[in-house]
Amino acid sequence: MSMSSLVILTLIGLFLSLRGYQAFKSQGFHFITGVDWVAAQDGSGEKNVFGLGAMIIGTLVISATALVVGVPLSVLTALFLTFYAPERFKKFLISVVDLMASFPSILYGLWGFFVLMPMAEYWAKLIHKYLGWIPIFDVPQPAYTRSPFIAGIVLAIMIIPIVTSVSREIFAQTPLDRIQAAYALGATRWAMIKAVVLPFGASGVVGGAMLGLGRALGETVAVYSVLNIVFKVNFQVLYGFGGNIASMIVQKWGEASLSEGKALLAAGFVLFIMTLLVNMGANYIVRRTVKTGR
Amino acid sequence: MTTTYVPTVSPTRPWKKTPAQLIPTVVILILALLLDVSVVAVTPMKGKLAYALLFFLFSVGMQFIYAWVKRGRPAAMDSLAGAVTMTGGMIVFLPVLSILVTVLVKGLPGLGLHTFTQTMEKTSYSDPLSSGGLLHAIVGTLYLIVIATAIALPLSILTALYLTEIKGRAAGFIQFLVQAMSGVPSVVAGVFIYAAILLTTNLRGSTFIGALPLAILMIPTVTRTAQEVLLLVPAELREAGLALGATQWRTVATIVVPAARSGLITAVILGVARIAGETAPLLFTLGTTDKVNLNPFTGGQNALPYYIWSGLRDGTEGGVARAWTAILVLLILVLSLFTTARIFGNRKAKR
Lengths: 294, 351
Description:
- The complex is a heterodimer of chains A (294) and B (351).
- With 294 residues, chain A is mostly helical.
- Chain A is built from 11 helices and 2 strands, in the order ααββααααααααα.
- In chain A, helix 3 (53-84) packs antiparallel against helix 8, helix 4 (87-102) packs across helix 6 and helix 7 (176-184) packs antiparallel against helix 8 (189-218).
- Chain B is mainly α and 351 residues long.
């Protein structure tokens, strides 16, 4: 019975690659590297062009935004919870973080669209005004709605609970003798954190961030709600379109022809492999940190 | 004659700040607020964002300078770090507050008795909110939870038992697989069931097929929690069982599992909470309906997340308002599951 997880994982890989095989075969490497997606009608004799590249890049751009926004906040929160917060406040904040983890992703999507988007648009304008000279913050036209930036913020909020709780666990495992040694040498709290906790927990934080990345890569509904999915490569995070493999699958699913459907299954396979690799790496790092303490 | 003298001493807290020590903090905060308001009034900056940012900068900056003058550079850095981490914690708290308030404000107007007694069979999104309800979606979600749990529960508990009790040769490998499985995106689980079942056989989407990807998502959550709970069962209990001549199987079945019962229930509840709000896999596997469908194997089904999704995609005012009401109901369901899990878990920890 315990082998069920092996069976399920193998079956997922097997079925998705099998069903998507035609798409892989007809497109070759273009399926990963190509950036255009044109589905011909079945039987019309036209050629299908499926290139997932734009969506892969879009997924990475959004996830990177989420990490840049979410990880520092999570680490700060974890530090605050472990070393600064008064006991009563600590319990309350921990349950708030747990609460965040329990919200369904469609709730984040709905809230992101109706509440966060108007605010985030304003932030995007500010960033563009003052940091627009940096290429990724530039926009060719003033279109700030439904941008990768906004999707990234929503994802950041979604990964904060994971990254925070992993970081908190790692920070809490800092050997007490080292902490006390630092205090005995006259360190302030911050000096102690800098000298003892951060070196000890750094790789654990990286592992936690990768677990968060794993979640960000595969997020579907929340991203679909706030992102304007267009099949083009877009590195300008503030500009109003982008992509994400998972939500692209949902978007194209409804009216997909048979061959396009197979290409979507192949896209699912690519996503599966991506998240699997990231998660394995993350678990490896977290476990190693917990075991050896460095 | 001797009298025993018992001194009544209240515990002293030398680290506690005296009112005199608190004065600088209060003064700095008031100064920062005044400066904040005046700067915003004078310069072209405006909005809540400017207020918050400037207040943060002023108060932190002044405390930094005060600490530097009074106690030197290390103390200044310490006060800065304390302020920055606290701000991080506050920022994390804000979206949760905003989400809860928004859901309540937007969801409550559509909530009424009809929400739980009517379906969308004879109601369209343009009808007033007082007609039509979520009954079909609630029934669907309950069906999905029951079926997914029925599939995932034996698999995950047995896996957890294998990992903690039998500790066979494959334990490390399986642990690794369970963790890998917990990272499977929900959309991939949905697409997988579609490719494996709907595309291969001529079955159509139904409650049972919709529950399959949910079971896949549930297994790792339940397994990992159950594992932690089983590890808490004292080794003495197992040894006592074995010493009485019981086989390992009997020890596990009659001693270990009952001892961990409430923890195992917590594990299942957490698993259910994990899947109750899943939307993406249902889009591929559920079919759809506007009526109550009590047959889990034929005909489409609806579910709360799916209902919210349709309302949101519809985009009309009525659709979105109904989506908010449904998400309020879903959130109450998920939160009550979590609270129950917490209570069970705490009771376990206390014993």
